[in-house]
Amino acid sequence: LYNAGSNLLILSHDTRAQRFVPLAGDGVSAMAASPNKRYLAVAERARGSAKPQISIYDVLSMRKRKVLVTPPHTQQTPPTREFVSLCFSPDSKYILAQASGPDWTLYYWAWEKSKVMASTRIVAPTHTNVVLPPSVTRVSFNPIDPSLVVASGQGVLRLLRYQEGQLRRIHEAIQPPHQNYITHCWITAPPPVATTAHPADRSLPSNAGGPSGSAAPPAPTGSPRAYLLLSTADPRLLLLDPADPDHPHRADLVLPTHPTTSLPLPVYALHPTARGILAGCSAGTKVLTCRLSPSPSQLDDAHLTPVMHSFHSLPITGLDTCVRKPLVATCSLDRSVRVWNYIEGTCEVAKVFAEEAFSIALHPSGLYVLVGFSDKLRMCCVLVDDVRVVREFTIRGCRECRFSTGGQFFAAVHGTTVQIFSTWTFDLLATLKGHSGKVRSLHWSSDDSKLVTAGIDGAVYEWALGGPKRDSESIVKSCNYTSAVLHPDGRSLFAVGSDRTLREIVESTVVREIESDVVYTQVAASHNGKMLFAGTAGGCVRAIKFPMAPGDTKSVEYAEHMAHAGAVSRMRVSHDDQYLFTAGEDGCVYVYKISDKEGRGKREREPIYADEVRGVSEGSTLMHNWLTVNKYCMLNVEDLSDEV
């Protein structure tokens, strides 16, 4: 179970199938599973003036059982935007919910009755000039004594006990103002043994932290106890005994190390299992796990095991697909470029660069990617395990680039101008001037004879590349256009921008204006001309009724799907009209299966390519240039000719 955008996803490890559960809030801030594995608690952020809520789902049916909402706030308790941590009690009847700042209130809920049993403020108000103000990141129940709860975070470590309808702090002497506790977990250990060892020599009980080569301990006395294992940002692991919390001890466990630097990695997640303590850490954008052990020789053979392939950690700025392979390429502000296989649902190759990436274009063959970085535009070759740069262009901060339908040209935005290059020789063929503001969208016609550009100056231009010359134009000064597409028939185009209006433009004339209640950020059309899609600033994807009726001049029917927790930044349709790809500012990529009323993305005609592409298959001199650029790919010439 995990969340992506505005959906809760259930992933089957066996079939790799995903099940989506739409959420009503503005994204997920915390989740928790009950110890009996029957219930799932999901904290949804507040949207607009609404309150954040906690939804309790039945795991088997994924139906919502309860919805918990915080009590009305007062002047002393300002409204809360989200919950940062959730935890079920050992008997699954109660829930701890830690609210975010500025009040940082901890709620103790009897969730089946929707009743707040107790609440208390964990963090006292601080001055705004504090560099690292106290904050809470995790709360939990003691598995042996459910009346004891703990809250930890930046400069916070609080032990509280639920008594007489109140959460009362115990052990007031704990004052860690400069310690950053990342996470914690409870470890159920056998009863303490009779020993005369000095308290400073105490460490994690041998059978609580993994295998140990020491001899069997003496016979235990008393009842089982629970110890608190804390992970700090130093990084360190500390062990705390609730009976003596003023003297935490260093846990005798080996921290995982970075694969390349060999430095200890901070542990962001801890989970006790029958085989030891499972630790989760992060190396860049990879989520890794290992089992902690008292000695390096007793660690798992793999030391660090990736949970799954890495994802983007910052907003996605570019997305594109190709014809020859089932691939999608994305780039992000996290400086990484990733190529995904959307059929198998895997990441084929990923590479992190030194500069931020603003745009990406994938060649129809799937063998090249064109990436616009903050310093230069780079042509890269997609290898089995690498994305290798083969050519650089002096275009800084390229916000949009696109290969032509046939792949023989590519267009790149350079501020207010658009430059067109030859893919085979890298020669600059034309420079399109006319926009007074930055260009934000490029779209080639199916036969590569036209190019549509749209910018924040409110202008949409259609260029005939034979000259080249401007074939048609439409200017709306009140709109900052972000996306425009040309209909496959080449007669009309659709554009969206900041004024919440979808416009249809035919021969420089706006023939239709469809107003909306949200801002459209992206628009995409299927290759068969029978489907139209739009992405919104709220993260929704709308399938618009198409073709539109003659009377649909102000409004149109659509089916809306909640997808991203941020604005939709890019949208593409696969060449066979079977899939819709969307990327958002939340760092997620969604793949939709699409169909029309007559069939699933069936194409009625083959695409028309320009003469330059047919020249490649006929063995012209352009073939030599192709193979020179692609010398790292080890292609077979006959295969290349057949494919092209």
UniProtKB/TrEMBL annotation:
Keyword Plastid assigned to the entry: answer is no
List the InterPro entries: CFA-57, Quinoprotein_ADH-like_sf, WD40/YVTN_repeat-like_dom_sf, WD40_repeat_dom_sf, WD40_rpt
Which Pfam families does the entry link to?
A: WD40 (PF00400)
Chain intervals for the UniProt region annotation (Disordered): 196-226
Determine if 4Fe-4S is one of this entry's keywords: no
Query: What PROSITE patterns is this protein classified in?
Result: WD_REPEATS_2 (PS50082), WD_REPEATS_REGION (PS50294)
User: Could you tell me where the Low complexity compositional bias lies?
Assistant: 205-216
**What are the ranges of the WD repeats?**
432-463, 561-602
Q: Give UniProt keywords alphabetically.
A: WD repeat
Q: What is this protein called?
A: WD40 repeat-like protein
Species: Gonapodya prolifera (strain JEL478)
